[in-house]
Amino acid sequence: MGVDCRETRHMNKRRPGMALGLPLALSFAPAAMANPGMSPADWGIRTDKLEYRMGEEENAFAWEFETWTGNDDLRLVWNSEGAQRDGGDVEEMDNQIRLQKPITDFFDGFAGVAASTPDGAPGRYHGVFGVTGLAPQWFEVEAALYVSEYPTSGRKWTTKGC
User: Fold this and answer.
1) What start and end residues bound the annotated signal peptide (predicted)?
2) Nearest C-alpha neighbor of 67 from the set 75, 58, 59, 55
3) What is the pLDDT along the chain (162 residues), one digit of tens a residue?
4) How far is it, in rounded angstroms, from Cα 123 to Cα 109?
C-alpha cells in the first residue's frame, strides 16, 4: 500500500503563475547577489483546500492555506483553516502565526501563537511549539504542543503523503 508519486501529464502543463515568476525572480536577482553571505527573502502560498460548498439549505465557504515569508534561516509562517456559512457565521476558524527555523536538514522547529474560534464558544489563544518537516518516504509530518492558561494542554500530530 503505497502512494504513487509519479508525475502525470497534467502536472507538466504551464501555469499562468510561472509566466510571472521568472520576470519577478529576475527583478530581485541583483539585490540577492549584492550580499552573497545572506539568503534572499522569499515568500509562498500553499492552499490545501479552497472550496465553496453548495447545499440544499445553505452554502458555505471553506479554506485551508499556509503562507510564509523569510529565507532559509528564519521564516514567518501563517496557517489558517476554517469554514463560513453564507450569511456570516464562522463555524470554525484556526489560525497560527509562528517563527520557523531549521534544526536539521529536513526538519524545522517552530514557536508562535495559535487562535481558535469554535462555533458558539469564545476564542481560545495558545502558545504553540513544535517540529515540522519531511520524513523518510517523503511524508510531511508535524508535531505541535499547544499551551494556554487553562489546565489542559493540547497536542497535534499530522502527516501528509506526497
Assistant:
1) 1-34
2) 75
3) 444 444 444 434 444 443 444 454 545 445 544 555 666 788 899 888 888 888 877 888 888 999 999 988 899 999 999 888 877 767 788 899 999 999 999 999 999 998 887 766 677 888 999 999 998 888 889 999 888 876 555 556 666 665
4) 26
